[in-house]
Predict the structure.
Amino acid sequence: MDELELLKKDWVKSEDKFEKKSANQIYPMLLKKSSSIVKTLFYISVAELVFWIIINTLPFFMSDTYRAKHDEMYTSNTFIILSVLSYAIIMVFVYLLYKSHKSISVTDNARRLMKNILKTRKIIKYYVLYNLIMASVSMIFAFYYTSKHDPILIEKIEHFNNAQFLTMIGIFALFTIVFVTIIWLFYKLIYGILLKRLNKNYKELKKIEV
C-alpha cells in the first residue's frame, strides 16, 4: 500500500481537527501524480509524431517503384492537405499537452488542479476522436485514389458486375472498420490507462474540496 493510501485511511479515521492537515498532505501527492501522468501523455504524443514522420520518410529508403508511387500520391492536393492537417493537429496536440503539464505543475489549489485535469481529459478525447475520423477518411481516400490510378485495379474493376463491385466495397468497408478499431484499441490501451489514473486523482481531489 502506497503512502497516499495510508494517508487517506488516516484521514478517514482521524477527528475533524486532523482533516485539514491530512488534506494538505494528500494534495501535493495528487499534484505530483497528475503532473507525472500528463508528462507521460506528452512524451507519448511526441513519440507518435516521430513515428508518423518515420513512416512517411521510409518510402525514400525503399524500392524505386514504391518511391515513385509515394511521389505520385503527393501530386494530389487532397493527399497533401490531409498530410499537412494531420501533422498540424498532432503538433497542436503536443503543444496543448505540454501546456497542460506546465499548468498542472504550478497549480496551487485543488479546485484549479481539478479544472486542469478535466481540460487534459477533454484534449485527449478530442484528439482520439480526430484520429479515428482521419483514419477513416484516409482509408476512403486511399481506396478512391488507387481505384483511379492503379492500372491493374482499374482493369479488374472494369470487368466487375454489380455483385462483384458490391463485394469489393463490402470488403473495403470491413477492412476500414477493422483498421479503425485497431487504432481505437491502441488509444484505449495507451491513453485509457493513463486517463483512468488521472480520473482517480480527480475523484480524490473532489473529496478534498468537499
Remarks:
- The radius of gyration is 24 Å.
- The mean pLDDT is 78.
- The longest helix spans residues 162-209.
- Residues 35-209 form one domain.
